Amino acid sequence: MQSHNSFSINLNQQKSVAKKRLKAIRHNDANALEQVKLFHSQPETLTPESIQLADVQHALARELGLPSWSKLKAHVAELESHKLAINNQANPLDAELNTLHVRCGHDIQRQLKTCGFEGDFLPMIDPLCIGPIPSNEKGFVAIRAQYVVDTLLPAMGRKDSVQEVAQFEQGNIHTLLDQQYERIVFWVEHDAYDQFMLLRGLSLLEETEGKIIEIIEFNQFPGTERFIGFGQLPAEAIRSCWQHRKPVTAKLFSQAKRCWQALQAPTPLQLVNLLEQHELDGLPNIKAVIKRHLQELPHSESGLSFTQHLALQILNEQNEPINVKDWFQKYQQQEPIPTLGDVMFYALLLPLVQAENPLFTVDSLDKNWWEQQVNISENGRACLNGRSIFSQDYWVGGIHNLANSRWTWNHIQLSSLHHLVTG
Q1: Do both 177 and 100 map to the same domain?
Q2: 359-413 per-position pLDDT tens digit
Q3: Do 314 and 203 belong to one domain?
Q4: How much is the average pLDDT of 48-58?
């Protein structure tokens, strides 16, 4: 029996839920009424006496991520038609052009074949959301490879050389630019991993002529859980995304180039300028991503990045040590724009335990990293409370933060951002 997917909505089930809620409200269930009011577009009009089934259905549709009950019915019917097409092995959707599907991971590689695509798949997996983003194209691949080898591979138990990682990435670039492909389609979500991969990909394709370049971009999808990425979706939902692709126009290329150059800059000022002065309508999710990216700069009262601060805050709320796997899951639930994989999360937090005065403790670094038991230290609590500033040497895109020279702010008002030089 196939396991239930949170993004496969059963209309009959939702009708039943709506009827049960209405019945509960008619029996003066205050919680049921509050649940409906929470998502209804006119909550102030609802009372146990006046509420109708249509009101409950309307709120339920909005709770699932759709504006109305009729839109919910249309969405369910559409996914059913895609499921039928998959079962009937309909012609591949991308068959008319030799297509390359580009994604920042392997999560939908098999799904694409299952749900009706025959094009090649390119996973561009270098996580540009962490570590340096060099401005020098000549040294770009080597610098990124060094970062991956130093920071990520040890946690994964891999011993690839810098040269091997660089060669793999160079091979990806070669595939992206391969003349055989008539169309390139980027599948991206609303987080920094995807968005920065898109900017990088478009920067590499800037001089390309005679190709159709398209983007399939989603920041939410109707369902009963939070949408983080395409990998959560059933095959019919992924197939339905195809009709929402948009062409990369000259205007979009220009906006992407401006963002990419700002990310590579040695100060955050270009990024702030982009947020405050520029229209970036071709990249609807990039402003939120840039703001979140800037929050990885040290906090003015703790020296911690937003990721580190949130992770320590979670540890501080625990009554006993927890393992890294659970720590990551709790972090993921509270992260405003989930971006990091578990290995990236661990890699960003490791410096806090390797410091002279660690901000958290680990029972044994010899264990598999996800099994390690972690606990906040007194120094970690002091940092969280603004009584101690953690000094660290790390990169946020093109910005190199040093213990004695760093860009810092309160992670809320960009006007608080300033360059701090200490003796």
Answers
A1: yes
A2: 999 999 889 999 999 999 999 999 999 999 999 999 999 999 999 999 999 999 9
A3: no
A4: 97
User: Distance between CA 128 and CA 133 in Å, rounded?
Assistant: 7
Chain-centroid distance, C-alpha 56: 32
Spatial distance between the Cα atoms of 212 and 416, rounded to a whole number of angstroms: 43
Distance of CA 139 to the CA centre of its chain: 27
116: left (phi over 0), alpha (psi -120 to 50) or beta: left
Asked if the model's pLDDT at residue 1 lies above 50, the reply is no
**Other CB atoms within 10 A of residue 273 CB:** 13
Q: Domain span at residue 387?
A: 306-391
Q: To 5 degrees, how large is the angle CA 326–CA 289–CA 175?
A: 90
Any domain includes 265? no
* pTM: predicted TM-score of the whole model, two decimal places: 0.95
β-pairing, 394-397 vs 399-401, is antiparallel
Report whether pLDDT(200) > 70: yes
Determine whether 126 is exposed, middle or buried from the number of CB atoms within 10 Å of its CB (0-12, 13-18, 19+).
buried
**pLDDT single digits (tens) 75-100:** 999 999 999 999 999 999 999 999 99
Both 73 and 103 in one domain: the answer is: no
Q: Which amino acid is at 388?
A: S
Number of domains forming the structure of the chain:
3
Tokens 């906040």 map to which residue?
A: 376
Q: Which is nearest to 412 in space by CA: 348, 311, 352, 336?
A: 336
321 CB-contact burial (10 Å; exposed 0-12 / middle 13-18 / buried 19+): middle
Residue 327 to residues 299, 335, 346, 350, 382, Cα–Cα distance (Å): 21, 12, 10, 13, 20
Quick one: pLDDT at residue 157? 87
Helix (H) / strand (E) containing 24 = helix 11-26
Among 238, 231, 213, smallest CA distance to 116 is for: 238
- Predicted pLDDT of residue 208: 94
- Strand 131-132 versus strand 394-397 pairing type: parallel
Residue entry with tokens 């920042």 = 104
Identity of residue 414: L
Q: What is the pLDDT of residues 103-145, one digit of tens each?
A: 999 999 999 999 989 999 999 999 999 999 999 999 999 999 9
Decide: 419 and 405 in contact? Cβ < 8 Å. yes
